Automatic annotation (TrEMBL):
One of its GO terms (biological process) is regulation of DNA-templated transcription. One of its GO terms (cellular component) is membrane. The lineage of its organism: Bacteria, Bacillati, Chloroflexota, Chloroflexia, Chloroflexales. Residues 374-402 form a coiled coil. It is a multi-pass membrane protein. The keyword rRNA-binding does not apply. InterPro entries: Biofilm_reg_signaling, KdpD_sf, KdpD_TM, PAC, PAS, PAS-assoc_C, PAS-like_dom_sf, PAS_4. Keywords: ATP-binding, Coiled coil, Kinase, Membrane, Nucleotide-binding, Phosphoprotein, Transferase, Transmembrane, Transmembrane helix, Two-component regulatory system. This is Uncharacterized protein. It comes from Kouleothrix aurantiaca.
Length: 456
């Protein structure tokens, strides 16, 4: 909506009209003075005082002073002098000077009042235009609670045009009830008039329009005071919150649905804030982290959570809590899933958890929180460890069986060789061929000959 304010100077009439009023007032004063000359002879300027007051109020200070000087000249020529000439008598001149002085005072006072009235009109007009331009509904009342102003939005919500509402009691125009009990609610205007302080309405207030239409509203009322601090009225500002209530209802529904979904998944979900507090946690997250409930997890502090567990990496190395995925996400960094080993030093309870986190940003791309997903892989890791141990036992048993078979074969073959010949050279050569492939890459045998010499 375009709003145009007229400046205070625009309240003055056109110049030609101001000159015409000045000239007409002087002419009328002179004519009446000539008509009643015998009666006003002792005070020839009396009717000119009225003319000067009119000119000062309508045509301004300069024209009124000029008109005062012209009044002295006209009175001196037409009224004081008997022969239609200017009288230069000292007494007549003194009376003229007194008239000019008094007329100047009248002019100054009248002009000041005119300017104050013009400024007051401009302020009132600016005030009315400002209230009419506010996006909320606005109603103004006097000190008796009678309506003095409504803007367009207030007219729409109440169903009362400004001309019909003006002068009516506020209860007639602004009818409100409690949404639950349907009982009439106390009008905030009367609260302000009674207490002299700002008053508001409960959030469950309904405004009844003139045609019975209902609007949920929120409002505030404040006193209007003059320069002396006297309460002269009330300003009531309110707005239709139907869209807001609808949006809040949809948000609650979506929140409840999301809570049901997150509450029934097996993965833990946590929303962490930059200050270390948790904005949300589901029951699975509480179970994974060893808390009795999601509420207990939410009420815990960051220091308590850090002291509760020993954190280790996949290889058993100690982890810095500040470098976990959730904290990195709060710094705006996306990070791949990380395996974290939680160990409770008191109970000895251990859990393997796969942790993932993503930052949540606002419209300005600032990180508001991080969403952390906790996937308990303890059973999976225990199963892997059991499979590894089982495989190791199986490989050990197989190796033991192969070693026993090899020993049995060796002993059997050695017995056959030893029994096959009594020649030590032949036997020794056969035994060497049997044992060397099993025990070494090569073998040297030293024997004593007939001369008791060592021979290879």
């Amino acid at each position: 909506m375009d709003v145009f304010l007229r400046p205070a100077s625009a309240a003055q009439p056109p110049r030609i009209l101001r000159f015409a009023v000045a000239a007409g007032s002087l002419a009328l004063a002179l004519g009446l003075s000539l008509l009643f000359r015998p009666i006003i002879a002792p005070v020839p300027f009396i009717l000119f005082f009225a003319a000067i007051a009119i000119i000062a109020a309508y045509s301004g200070l300069v024209l009124s002073i000029v008109s005062a000087l012209l009044s002295v000249a006209l009175s001196n020529y037409f009224l004081i002098s008997a022969d239609g000439t200017f009288s230069l008598d000292r007494g007549d001149l003194a009376r003229g000077a007194v008239f000019v002085f008094v007329a100047s005072l009248i002019s100054v006072i009248s002009d000041a009042r005119r300017r104050a009235a013009v400024q007051s009109y401009a302020d009132a007009e600016r005030f009315a235009v400002t209230l009419a331009s506010i996006g909320d509904a606005v109603i103004a009342t006097d000190a008796n609670g009678k309506v003095t102003f409504l803007n367009a939005i207030a007219e729409e919500l109440t169903g009362w045009p400004r001309r019909d509402a003006a002068g009516r009691n506020i209860e007639e125009v602004f009818r409100i009830i409690n949404a639950q009990t349907r009982a009439p609610a106390e009008n905030p205007v009367h609260q302000v008039l009674r207490d002299g302080t700002i008053a508001g309405l409960p959030s469950n207030t309904i405004l009844l329009g003139r045609d019975g239409t209902e609007h949920p509203i929120d409002d505030s009322s404040a006193p209007i005071r003059d320069r002396k601090g006297q309460l002269i009225g009330v300003i009531l500002v309110f707005r239709n919150i139907a869209a807001q209530l609808s949006a809040e209802g949809e948000l609650r529904t979506a929140h409840d649905q999301l809570a049901v979904i997150l509450g029934n998944i097996t993965d833990g979900v946590v929303a962490a804030l930059p200050n270390g507090e948790l904005a949300y946690a589901n029951e699975a997250a509480a179970e994974i982290t060893g808390y009795p409930s999601a509420q207990a997890l939410l009420e815990s502090t960051a220091a308590e959570r850090r002291a509760r567990f020993q954190l280790q990496g996949e290889s058993g190395e100690a982890l810095d809590p500040g470098e976990l995925p959730g904290r990195r996400a709060l710094r705006g960094t996306d990070h791949a899933a990380q395996i974290v080993r939680h160990r409770d030093p008191i109970s000895g309870r251990e859990r393997w958890v796969r942790v993932q986190a993503r930052p949540v940003r606002d419209a300005r791309e600032q990180v508001m929180m991080s969403i952390i997903i906790l996937n308990d892989i303890s059973e999976e890791r225990l199963a892997e460890q059991e499979r590894a141990a089982s495989l190791a036992r199986e490989q050990s048993a197989r190796a033991e069986a192969e070693a026993a078979k090899s020993r049995a074969t060796f002993l059997s073959e050695a017995g056959r060789i030893l029994a096959s010949s009594l020649d030590y050279s032949t036997t020794l050569s056969a035994v060497t061929k049997l044992t060397v492939p099993r025990l070494a890459d090569w073998c040297g045998v030293h024997v004593l000959n007939e001369r008791q010499e060592i021979q290879l």
